[in-house]
Structure formats: structure tokens, C-alpha cells
Design brief:
Threonyl-tRNA Synthetase, Chain A, domain 2, alpha+beta
């Protein structure tokens, strides 16, 4: 694929991946597991690694997290704990929290936060709350009501899938059109040839260069064509007339010993690698021997 089109196709692939609707995600059990992690980290923040987080209660669409023992908390630390857990578990991105006392159920601290926004207003985040019996009440505002043990986000319907593909179809068609157009306009002879490994040499037919142990050896155009033709038929015997017709074509600029002269030049330039040999098959032609 032409390099100029690579970014376009990468964009199309990325767009398809991002736009295609996901299935699978949050279940009732996953929500409750995430809240138990929140409760556990809240107690650890208070220095309590022994007391239990009691079973999570769900009342309507609210989740109650309560504890075996009293504790105190700093609102800023509490917010950080909750946000970290919800992001790690992808349980929710938009929620409301109310911290209530256990007996009178008075709300001592509350806020609403959308993790996708940066301008959330959080009240009194630096004021420590004294040790007492507290309950955490969560309402997840980005979850459907009536959550149960089944998957919350259902697989995309065929209609929604078709909608996404229709949006992406023009991008795909434009990419294919540009690729075919460029491929048609690009002559075959101009297609970039990669570096070829010939024995211990690296051979670049396009730049007419041989490289051996960091040293570059320049080839003439005809030397490069001759070496490439021999390499494409390595370990095979090529007749003299066939080599002359392929490399010099019908230029008419060669005489009887022209091929022998170029073979001699190539042998000298390939001599640092003793595993490479150009054999003279008497009365027939030449053969490039490449071991391995």
C-alpha cells in the first residue's frame, strides 16, 4: 500500500473500532463488588484493616454501603477513593453520593460528580468529618433503572449496527477509490524494491549499492541489473545470449566480451564474501552460487 494512504486506512480502522458499539459490561454483581472495594479502601484510609464492610443493600436504585465499625473521613480523600475505584472497574462515570449517619439518617456530606467532566463542584472537600457511624448511599445516574443480574448494556441491535456502518461507509469507499487510483497510475517499474540479502551483502537494486560490513560499494546501472538477474536465478545456469538479451536488451552497444568484463567487475566487488561465486560454465554461460 502506498505510504501516503496508510494514515487514511489507519484512521478508518480506528474509527471502526471506536464507533462499533460495545456489548457486555456492567452487572448487578459487578456494581456491588466495586462498592465493596470502595468500603474496604475507606476503612484502610482510616487505618482500619480489621473491621468488615457489611453486605451491600439496594433500595430502589440506590446502593447502601455500611460498616461494622465507626470511622472518620476526609471528603477529599473519600472522593479520590471512589473515583479511582469507579474508573478502575468502569462501574460508572456519573454518580451521586450521600454520606448519612446511621441512626438519624442525617446527610452529613453529599455531592454529584461526572468523571467525564472537569468542572464538577464539590462542597467542603477539605473539612474532616469526626468519627461516627456512617453509611454511603450511591445513586448511579448513567445506569438504567431496574438493574438486575443480567448484563446492563445489551448487545447492539442489528439496526444500530447498520447505523454505524452507514456512517463509516463513505470513508471506506473514499479510501478504496484513492488506493486503486494511485495503484493504477503508478508504473510497475517504479515500485520500490526492498534491500536484498545476497550472502553477507545487502544489495539495493534501486540505489545500485552493495553494503558489506558497513562499507558501501557502488555499482553501475548495468552491474546492478546483471547482479539482480543472476540473483533471481541463483544456483541456476544462465546462457550468455539470454543474459545479454535481458540486461542489454536491444541496445546494440555490447560486443563479444562485454558480458565477461561485467562479470569480472562483479566478481571483484563480491570477493569480500567467499561464499559467493560466479562460475563460468564453459560454452554455456554463468551461474551465481549462493550458499545456504
Amino acid at each position: 500500500m502506498p505510504k501516503s494512504l496508510s494514515p487514511l486506512f489507519l484512521f478508518v480502522a480506528f474509527a471502526c473500532l471506536k464507533a462499533y458499539p460495545k456489548s457486555n459490561l456492567r452487572t448487578e454483581q459487578q456494581i456491588q463488588d466495586a462498592l465493596r472495594v470502595v468500603g474496604h479502601r475507606v476503612l484502610l484510609q482510616f487505618g482500619d484493616s480489621i473491621s468488615r464492610v457489611l453486605p451491600i443493600h439496594k433500595i430502589d436504585d440506590n446502593y447502601q454501603v455500611y460498616f461494622e465499625t465507626d470511622f472518620g473521613f476526609n471528603p477529599d480523600s473519600l472522593i479520590t477513593i471512589i473515583n479511582d475505584v469507579l474508573q478502575e472497574t468502569e462501574a460508572s462515570h456519573h454518580y451521586r453520593l450521600a454520606v448519612k449517619t446511621c441512626n438519624g439518617s442525617d446527610v452529613v456530606y453529599s455531592y454529584e460528580l461526572n468523571l467525564r467532566l472537569t468542572n464538577n463542584l464539590l462542597p467542603c472537600a477539605q473539612r474532616d468529618q469526626p468519627v461516627a457511624c456512617y453509611e454511603l448511599w450511591f445513586t448511579f445516574l448513567d445506569l438504567p433503572t431496574g438493574l438486575n443480574q443480567e448484563t446492563v448494556i445489551k448487545p447492539a441491535t442489528e439496526k444500530s449496527k447498520m447505523h454505524y456502518w452507514l456512517l463509516l461507509l463513505p470513508i471506506v469507499l473514499v479510501g478504496v477509490f484513492l488506493y486503486l487510483r494511485m495503484k493504477k497510475k503508478q508504473p510497475r517499474d517504479n515500485v520500490e524494491i526492498e534491500v536484498i540479502q545476497i550472502g553477507k551483502f545487502e544489495f539495493n537494486p534501486k540505489s545500485n549499492l552493495l553494503e558489506f560490513d558497513g562499507n558501501k560499494i557502488e555499482l553501475s546501472g548495468k552491474e546492478s541489473e546483471l547482479l539482480l538477474h543472476l540473483y533471481n536465478h541463483k544456483n541456476e545456469t544462465l546462457e550468455r545470449d539470454e543474459i545479454l538479451a535481458f540486461v542489454w536488451k536491444d541496445e546494440g552497444a555490447y560486443v563479444g566480451r562485454t558480458l565477461d568484463v561485467f562479470i569480472s567487475k562483479l566478481r571483484k566487488k563480491l570477493s569480500p564474501d567467499v561464499t559467493l561465486k560466479i562460475l563460468n560454465i564453459r560454452g554455456v554461460g554463468y551461474r551465481l552460487i549462493v550458499e545456504g
